[in-house]
Amino acid sequence: MCKLFNLRKFSIQTLCKLFNLRILSFDHCEELRRLPKQIHKLQNLQILKLAYCTKLKKLPGSLTKLVNLQELDVQGCHWLKELPEDLSNLKNLAKLNIAECASLTRMPPKIGELTRLQKLSRYIAVYDDNHGKSICAIPELQTLINLQQLHVQNLERVSNFAEDVQAAKAIQENTRLEHLALEWEWWDMDSVAEAASIQIIAECFEPNSNLRMLEMVCYMEKELPGWMKEEGVSSHLNFLVEIRLVNLKRCERLPPLGQLPYLENVEISGMDSIKVVDDAFCGQTYHIFRSLKKITFSEMLTLEEWHVERQRYPKAFPKLGELTLIQCPRFRGFDKRIVYNGIKTRMWLNNETLLTSELEHSHNYMCITELEIVGCQELRCLPQTMKYYLNYVKTLKIVGCNQLVALPDWLQDLKYLRKLTILCCPALRYIPERFLKENEFQLSVMKGSRRLRHATMGDGFQLRMIEDELRMRMRMRMRMRMRML
After folding, report:
1. CA-CA distance, 427 to 421, in Å (whole number)?
2. In degrees, to the nearest 5, what angle opens at C-alpha 197 toward C-alphas 196 and 200?
3. How many angstroms separate the CA atoms of 444 and 484, rounded?
4. Does the keyword Repeat apply (predicted)?
């Protein structure tokens, strides 16, 4: 195995003489601009990692002669424009990671011949060839019968032609598939209105019952595909462990995830048409969310409440350990059936949420254990009424509140508060005395807050100040030591 970070201390040409090399890693090697053409001499190479080599623009064609290569990872190579045309020669390739390659806009031809492929982190469904002709790569999926992980992008360009539909349906026959991600991309809502095939294509990607992880991004229909509704979710998603639904802007109902017996992690983000999470989310079962451990709602701009009918679901959320809300400005509170003191409940507040009287007088937030206040530019001091619903807060983080001058003394009365982090609050002048003296309390002040430098410290306490000036001093000290050596 060979792992390189700094090419200045090593000649890359020397690598081609290591004929028995099996693993070669250039991960995060920012100086790497190209691989040597002689890389084909490494005939025993099985794993090649080039993740986040941000200056790499092209792979040599000779790479396709590495017939024993099983894994190729170019994730995060932002300037990589294309893969070798003869990539299909790598018959033993099992893992191809091209995620986060922003400049890579098309798949190499004949990728369907890589029949041993198990993980394909990004698959561009439709692309334009060198002559500007639109090419649909969906039919290539039919022969990739060993896929366990598949992320399909550019689905907005897939038509509902019989050939494309039939090829998409082939995914049902793959019993090995465990991780499926479906992603559309829209530049404007007018293009969404013209795409009549959205739901048709989504229906065709109906997965087999062995699926463990499902992601759906930018699906723009009002209704979910049939295999995600009440009548289909149990038969097609019964063994699902994790699900991510991101930017389903028009979707008016959540899938009945509560009836999935093995579901552990749920993330729902950017579903702007959802106002209430109700019993439809729980599904038709007595014991809802029996395995759920973590659930996150983020950027739900119209979400107001989460209500569960207590009599209908007496056994609910028995294993739930973490609930997080991020950027839900209209959210009024939780049903007490859902949250209780044993659950780690995190909330992210911004200006619109924090400054509303509705939040200040709410008693439905007393279960919160972690609170983040981010980007409240008008905030000078925390509202007095906040203390009534922060009784169980253990961690408080305040970020980017430029006008925040002081932290209130009532924070000292929060008996469970053990960690306070302040980041980028340059106007802050005052912190309650308890936080400066108590040994068991963890206080971090990072970037800004220069007026706190002369704060009085108690015995055994360290105030962590990470600022540009202090960093410069540390660098100067290191340089002095290096010169002395």
Report:
1. 15
2. 130
3. 33
4. yes
State pLDDT tens for residues 114-132: 999 999 999 998 877 767 7
SS3 444: strand
Q: In which domain, by residue range, is 390 found?
A: 360-485
The secondary structure of residue 448, as a DSSP letter, is S
Q: What is the pLDDT of residues 163-220, one digit of tens each?
A: 777 777 777 778 899 999 999 987 655 555 555 578 888 888 888 889 999 999 999 8
DSSP-derived secondary structure for 266-329: EEEE--TT--EE-GGGT-S-SEETTT--EEEEES-TT--EE---TTT-SEE-TT--EEEEES-T
Q: Are strands 395-399 and 464-466 parallel, antiparallel or unpaired?
A: unpaired
Answer whether residue 29 is part of any domain.
no
Amino acid at 340: Y
Tokens of 37: 């053409």
How far apart CA 295 and CA 20 sit, in angstroms, is: 47
Residue 479 within a domain: yes
Which amino acid type is present at position 26? F
Rounded to a whole number of angstroms, the distance between the first and last alpha carbons of the chain is 32
In a domain, 267, yes or no: no
The amino acid at 258: G
CB 39 within 8 A of CB 61: no
Distance CA(454)–CA(341), nearest Å, equals 38
Rounded Cα distance, 197 and 204, in Å:
11
Q: Which helix (H) or strand (E) holds 420?
A: strand 419-423
User: Total structural domains in the chain?
Assistant: 1
Report if residue 352 sits inside a domain: no
HEC states along 342-354?
Answer: CCEEEEEECHHHH
Percent of the chain at pLDDT exceeding 90: 40
Sequence-separated (6 or more) residues with CB below 8 Å from residue 427: 402, 403, 404, 405, 451
pLDDT at 448: 59
φ/ψ of residue 170, rounded to 5:
-60, -20
Helix (H, G, I), strand (E, B) or coil at 169: helix
Predicted pLDDT at 358: 45
Question: What is the per-residue burial (b if ≥16 Cβ within 10 Å, else e) of 298-330?
Answer: bbbbebeebbbeeeebeebbeebebbbbbbbbb
Residue 383 zone, left/alpha/beta (φ > 0; ψ -120 to 50; rest): beta
Indicate the SS3 state at residue 102.
coil
